[in-house]
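in:
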């Protein structure tokens, strides 16, 4: 945990220092303690601190959401997008851009969050329909099916009017650039509630991992645990996707890494995911600024390139791939 905390502080400082124009560590420190007021200090305060804070929040949200959805579905290859959250957010943003002409991130943030929330509710209702008990497999299949339908409709809308959807392209690639404090202020409370709820669910998720019958015998309410976990996933992944767009592999890979370090205890997996995912996301954002100077690669593209080989390496080990 100490090593991870040091890594988190290191990538945070690198995010404040590195960009189209590098800022010395001394200037960053003086800016943080309020004794520097030159142009570099304005860059750090106005652009890089909000961007870094957003990266930390988005990373924590995606990592913990991934840990929750893998625990609820008992599927080691599940990620937050399996509930259709990303597809629901993208569909709602497409409606905001194409129908209402909204182009700024703070304006369509609410559409993205609402789309994620509605999609998750519909997925849960479909997956829990019928007389049988709620099945993780049915919820998974419902999420994949609805996500595919919404993704297809969104693609058709974008292809029908490419010029009108230019404002959506940066969001779709997954980016934390140019969001500002306004977006952070709107989204932070939802992420905070989701993270607290996830931490409180750790013990119940350990019982659910043993199977529904044994979990009931241990006194755990399986339906309530699943409902609260899905609420937390919606708050975390829905808000993170609304802020930064669909970012892949973070919610899939980080819980495996946490499980590899601490074992199957969901309480520790959630806690470690909350720290490891921001490290990955902020480090990927810094790497994206370096690779294409003076421009940059969106963080969603970098995480896709980083996540695939690392995930393959992790799941080849029995301890990492088992739930």
């Amino acid at each position: 945990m100490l090593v991870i905390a040091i890594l988190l502080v290191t990538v945070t400082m690198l995010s404040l220092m590195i960009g189209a124009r590098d800022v010395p560590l001394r200037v960053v420190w003086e800016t943080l303690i309020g004794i520097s007021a030159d142009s570099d200090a304005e860059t750090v305060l106005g652009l890089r601190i909000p961007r870094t804070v957003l990266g930390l929040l988005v990373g924590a949200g995606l990592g913990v959401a991934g840990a929750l959805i893998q625990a609820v579905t008992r599927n080691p290859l599940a990620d937050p997008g399996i509930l259709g959250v990303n597809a629901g957010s993208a569909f709602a943003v497409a409606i905001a851009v194409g129908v209402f002409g909204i182009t700024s991130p703070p304006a369509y943030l609410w559409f993205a969050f609402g789309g994620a929330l509605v999609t998750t509710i519909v997925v849960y209702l479909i997956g829990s329909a019928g007389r049988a008990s709620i099945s993780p497999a049915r919820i998974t299949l419902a999420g994949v099916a609805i996500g595919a339908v919404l993704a297809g409709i969104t693609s058709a809308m974008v292809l029908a009017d490419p010029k009108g959807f230019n404002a959506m392209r940066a969001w779709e690639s997954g980016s934390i650039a140019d969001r500002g404090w306004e977006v952070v202020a709107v989204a932070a409370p939802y992420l905070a509630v989701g993270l607290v709820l996830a931490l409180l669910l750790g013990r119940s998720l350990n019982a659910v991992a043993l199977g529904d019958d044994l979990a009931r015998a241990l006194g755990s309410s399986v339906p309530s645990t699943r409902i609260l976990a899905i609420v937390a996933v919606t708050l975390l992944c829905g808000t993170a996707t609304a802020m930064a767009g669909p970012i892949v592999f973070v919610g899939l890979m980080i819980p495996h890494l946490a499980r590899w370090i601490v074992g199957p205890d969901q309480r520790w997996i959630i806690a470690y995911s909350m720290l490891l995912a921001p490290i990955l996301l902020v480090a990927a954002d810094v790497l994206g600024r370096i690779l294409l100077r003076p421009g940059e690669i969106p963080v969603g593209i970098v995480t896709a390139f980083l996540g695939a080989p690392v995930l393959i390496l992790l799941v080849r080990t029995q301890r990492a791939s088992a739930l």
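note: The two ends are 21 Å apart (CA to CA).
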